[in-house]
Amino acid sequence: TESMFFSGTLWDTAETYDQSGFLGMVKAFLSSSPSPPLKPPPLLCTSISGNGGNWAMSLAVVSESILLYLDEAGDEDASVDLSCVIGASSGSGATMVFMNLLANPNFGIADPGTATHRQARTIARALG
């Protein structure tokens, strides 16, 4: 389809009198311009603080947070970036477990952190 730049009487008139072919080159260039970049996936951030060494509770909270986000977001084929996680004290251990799950090739996440909703759901279930 023609864009607004290539239609109308003014363009047609200019193209008719263009002896050098310059307008044709401009039209070809604009037609072949790349599409705008894709919007990055949503970023789901988690901060895990120390809680007396209770890693199981920390991992369960992260798991439920991810599952709640996915349930509200809906589209199973969409993507989400899970790489935004930080932990302090005993939460740093939970953070390491989480980041190792994201990097585990068995989960099929090509770009560390960016997962489909199906992959994110699998990661969340592995945590909880």
What can you see in these coordinates?
With about 130 residues, the chain is mainly alpha-helical. It has helices at about 10-15, 20-30, 55-75, 90-105, 115-125; strands spanning about 45-50, 80, 85, 115. The protein has a two-stranded parallel ribbon with strand order 1-3. Strands 2-4 form a two-stranded antiparallel ribbon. The radius of gyration is 25 Å and the shape is elongated. The termini are far apart. The model is unreliable at about 1-10 (pLDDT under 50).
Instruction: Give helix % range.
Output: 40-55%
Number of strands: 4
Report the sheet-strand fraction: 5-15%
Counted by DSSP, the helix tally is: 5
> What average pLDDT do the residues reach?
77
**What is the 3D shape?**
elongated
Order of helices and strands: HHEHEEHEH
Radius of gyration: 25 Å
Class inferred from helices and paired strands: mainly alpha
In terms of per-residue confidence, which ranges show pLDDT below 50 for 5 or more consecutive residues?
1-11
Main β-sheet, in a few words? 2 strands, parallel
What key attributes describe this structure?
single chain, about 130 residues, mainly alpha, two-stranded parallel ribbon, two-stranded antiparallel sheet, about 50% helix, about 10% strand, disordered N terminus
Summarize the structure.
The chain has 128 residues and is mainly α. It contains five helices and four strands, in the order ααβαββαβα. It has a two-stranded parallel sheet. It has a two-stranded antiparallel sheet with strand order 2-4.
How are the secondary structure elements laid out?
Layout: H1 9-16, H2 22-31, E1 46-48, H3 55-73, E2 79-81, E3 85-87, H4 91-103, E4 114-116, H5 117-127
Parallel strand pairs: 1-3
Antiparallel strand pairs: 2-4
